[in-house]
Amino acid sequence: xxxxxxxxxxxxxxxxxxxxxxxxxxxxxxxxxxxxxxxxxxxxxxxxxxxxxxxxxxxxxxxxxxxxxxxxxxxxxxxxxxxxxxxxxxxxxxxxxxxxxxxxxxxxxxxxxxxxxxxxxxxxxxxxxxxxxxxxxxxxxxxxxxxxxxxxxxxxxxxxxxxxxxxxxxxxxxxxxxxxxxxxxxxxxxxxxxxxxxxxxxxxxxxxxxxxxxxxxxxxxxxxxxxxxxxxxxxxxxxxxxxxxxxxxxxxxxxxxxxxxxxxxxxxxxxxxxxxxxxxxxxxxxxxxxxxxxxxxxxxxxxxxxxxxxxxxxxxxxxxxxxxxxxxxxxxxxxxxxxxxxxxxxxxxxxxxxxxxxxxxxxxxxxxxxxxxxxxxxxxxxxxxxxxxxxxxxxxxxxxxxxxxxxxxxxxxxxxxxxxxxxx
Length: 424
Known about the structure:
Layout: H1 2-8, H2 21-43, E1 45-58, E2 63-66, E3 71-76, E4 83-84, E5 89-94, E6 98-99, E7 102-103, H3 104-177, H4 183-253, E8 254-258, E9 263-266, E10 275-276, E11 281-287, E12 292-298, E13 311-316, H5 321-324, E14 327-334, E15 365-371, E16 375-378, E17 381-384, E18 390-401, H6 402-423
Antiparallel strand pairs: 1-12, 1-18, 2-11, 3-5, 3-10, 4-9, 5-8, 6-7, 9-11, 12-15, 13-14, 13-18, 14-15, 16-17
C-alpha cells in the first residue's frame, strides 16, 4: 500500500528539509564570537595597575623652620604665600619674663651696660695714670743721670784736691822732722787731707746708690708697657665677658628667626602671640628653584613590579577628575627600602585612607612621579598644581597576554607542586 502511494506521489519530486534562517545567522555569530574571544585571549594584553595615594611635593624638599628657643612670638613678619629672601626675618621671639622690677632680661641688660660703661671709664683713667707714671719714671731717669754726672765730677775734683793735700801733708811731715814747722800744723794738713778723702768715699757711695736707683727706674720703664697692657687687658676681658653676657641675654630675650633659603612661605603653624617650645615647627618654605613632583606611598605589596618610566594617571583632589579629567605622568624613581612614618614629612603626609595599608606603624615605599604638566586646565584657565595637594594615582605595572593571566592559577599550582616534589 505504501509503495502504491509512493508511486502515485512521485511526480512531485524529492522532499527537501528546510532550516530557519535565524538558526544559520545565530550559528555564524556564535562562531564569530568564539573566534573573536579566542583571538582576544591569544593576542589581547592586560596591564595590571595599582592605586596609590600621595601628595604634590617639590623635588628639592620642603625647608622646615623650627624655633631655636622657647618663648612667645611677638611678631610674625611674613604671610602665607609671600616670597622671602635668604636671611630675611620670619619671626621675632622673646623669652623674657615679667617680675615686680619689670622684664628680667631687660633689667639685667641695663646693669650689664652700666658695668661696661664703668669699666670703659676705668680703662681711660688707668691709661691716663699710666701715662703720668711713665712720664715720671722717664723724668726721674734723666734726673738720676744728671746727678750721677755731677757726683762723678765731684768725685774727680775731690780726688784731685785730696791728692794735692796728700802732697802738702807729706811735705809738712818732712818739715816737722827738720823742726821747721810745728807738729800741730802737720796734723792740721793731715786732717784736711783725710776729710777730703772721706768726702770722696762718700761721693762714691752716693754714686753707687744713684746707679742702683737708675737701674731700678730703667727696669720699671722696660716692663712698664707690658704691665700697663696687662692691667688694661684684664679690664678689657671683663668688658668682653659683659658683652658676651649681653649678647646671650639678648639672644635669650629676643630672637630673630631668619629664612635659610630663598623661596615661598607655606604652612604657617604659629601666629603672633603664641608660645612655642624649643624645636617646635614654625613654618615651611618652598625653595624658589624647586620643581614639582608627586610623591606616592604604598605598601610592599605594590612595589614588587614597580619600575621607572611606568605610566601613571593622576587625579588631583583639588580638581575632580569627573570634571577635569586624568593627568598623565611617569615614574621617575622609587625607594628600594621602606620608609618609617618619621621619615615622611608629617605636614604633607597623605591620609592613611589613601594608602594601601591601614597599619599606622607599617613602613611605606615612596614612588616619585613626574607629571607631564605642572598645571590643570580648569574652565579655560591653567591652574598651577601646588605643594601639599592630595593626589590619587593609577600606576600601570606589568603587561602580559590575557591568557597568561587566566592560566596564572595553573602556573602557581605547578610551581607549588614542583617545589613540593623537590622537598620530597
